[in-house]
């Protein structure tokens, strides 16, 4: 007979593993978890929040640049995607990072259509990840509120 | 000298690290990596700010800053304005600061870039994303006084560059393949990457 805590913990474990297996997260996210402890209990949530703010800002900059049809500042798009690639890499946002690499290639070859398509995908992808991580954090909260401990998940 | 003072102090020594990165996310991660490794950390968002903090901007400002002795500078390579490389050069050109070890970080595994930084006097070149193991290793390197242990500890670095080669670098060739430079490296181990070989040579 499973207690509520055990059920929640299993859900958390399964969900975490699925995020890695589906390529949303990579081992850099695991590295971030290592940096979280009693002194800094919300570290991961804080960092990913900053990351999603970065996404919003940089994607908006790139969209604006691409809007100047015929006069697109590909250098600006390039430097913005470089920054986004960097921060996605730092938090372990694997799919976002992959799309940034593709976007960078489109930008380097001044492939306008490619850039527009790719940017749309980046936008969708970061929002998807944001929702999934929110679900994950919610699960953590539920476990703690039920009086349990958040399990260590080995990928 | 600062490093010798640290190692001879009776209390457990704490490195004061100046971390330079234009990315807010990276600054936050780096700060945590360093704090969890028992370092004091100051973060700045640009090379210019770093120079100001170090008192190198020509403005002989508050002497309070001089008391906060920096034992290590870790800087991103690609930054708007002053790049990490330019910051490195300015630090090594300064008689007051050249002894401070400087570590460069970059998300790009570009061999000529790595070589350029090592030749200019960088202590180490780390590939991003930076991990806890990198910081721990870095701390050991610095605490031991860097150069004395160069031959031994530098050998750990090839693993790091290779791993990222496999993980993320789409186009770069193996960093341990023979470089196009004309340095005579025949006397050194095969697994020492060319960047390290050049560094060892230039430090004589």
Automatic annotation (TrEMBL), chain A:
<keyword id="KW-0963">Cytoplasm</keyword>
<keyword id="KW-0007">Acetylation</keyword>
<keyword id="KW-0932">Cytokinin signaling pathway</keyword>
<dbReference type="GO" id="GO:0000160">
    <property type="term" value="P:phosphorelay signal transduction system"/>
</dbReference>
<dbReference type="InterPro" id="IPR008207">
    <property type="entry name" value="Sig_transdc_His_kin_Hpt_dom"/>
</dbReference>
<feature type="modified residue" description="Phosphohistidine">
    <location>
        <position position="82"/>
    </location>
</feature>
<protein>
    <recommendedName>
        <fullName>Histidine-containing phosphotransfer protein</fullName>
    </recommendedName>
</protein>
<comment type="function">
    <text>Functions as a two-component phosphorelay mediators between cytokinin sensor histidine kinases and response regulators (B-type ARRs). Plays an important role in propagating cytokinin signal transduction.</text>
</comment>
<dbReference type="GO" id="GO:0005829">
    <property type="term" value="C:cytosol"/>
</dbReference>
<dbReference type="Pfam" id="PF01627">
    <property type="entry name" value="Hpt"/>
</dbReference>
<keyword id="KW-0902">Two-component regulatory system</keyword>
<dbReference type="GO" id="GO:0043424">
    <property type="term" value="F:protein histidine kinase binding"/>
</dbReference>
<keyword id="KW-0597">Phosphoprotein</keyword>
<keyword id="KW-0539">Nucleus</keyword>
<dbReference type="InterPro" id="IPR045871">
    <property type="entry name" value="AHP1-5/YPD1"/>
</dbReference>
<feature type="domain" description="HPt">
    <location>
        <begin position="40"/>
        <end position="147"/>
    </location>
</feature>
<dbReference type="GO" id="GO:0009736">
    <property type="term" value="P:cytokinin-activated signaling pathway"/>
</dbReference>
<dbReference type="GO" id="GO:0005634">
    <property type="term" value="C:nucleus"/>
</dbReference>
<dbReference type="GO" id="GO:0009927">
    <property type="term" value="F:histidine phosphotransfer kinase activity"/>
</dbReference>
Automatic annotation (TrEMBL), chain B:
<dbReference type="GO" id="GO:0009736">
    <property type="term" value="P:cytokinin-activated signaling pathway"/>
</dbReference>
<dbReference type="GO" id="GO:0006355">
    <property type="term" value="P:regulation of DNA-templated transcription"/>
</dbReference>
<dbReference type="InterPro" id="IPR045279">
    <property type="entry name" value="ARR-like"/>
</dbReference>
<keyword id="KW-0902">Two-component regulatory system</keyword>
<keyword id="KW-0804">Transcription</keyword>
<feature type="modified residue" description="4-aspartylphosphate">
    <location>
        <position position="76"/>
    </location>
</feature>
<feature type="region of interest" description="Disordered">
    <location>
        <begin position="148"/>
        <end position="204"/>
    </location>
</feature>
<dbReference type="GO" id="GO:0005634">
    <property type="term" value="C:nucleus"/>
</dbReference>
<dbReference type="Pfam" id="PF00072">
    <property type="entry name" value="Response_reg"/>
</dbReference>
<comment type="similarity">
    <text>Belongs to the ARR family. Type-A subfamily.</text>
</comment>
<protein>
    <submittedName>
        <fullName>Signal transduction response regulator receiver domain</fullName>
    </submittedName>
</protein>
<keyword id="KW-0539">Nucleus</keyword>
<keyword id="KW-0597">Phosphoprotein</keyword>
<dbReference type="InterPro" id="IPR011006">
    <property type="entry name" value="CheY-like_superfamily"/>
</dbReference>
<keyword id="KW-0932">Cytokinin signaling pathway</keyword>
<keyword id="KW-0805">Transcription regulation</keyword>
<feature type="domain" description="Response regulatory">
    <location>
        <begin position="16"/>
        <end position="143"/>
    </location>
</feature>
<dbReference type="InterPro" id="IPR001789">
    <property type="entry name" value="Sig_transdc_resp-reg_receiver"/>
</dbReference>
<dbReference type="GO" id="GO:0000160">
    <property type="term" value="P:phosphorelay signal transduction system"/>
</dbReference>
<feature type="compositionally biased region" description="Low complexity">
    <location>
        <begin position="165"/>
        <end position="185"/>
    </location>
</feature>
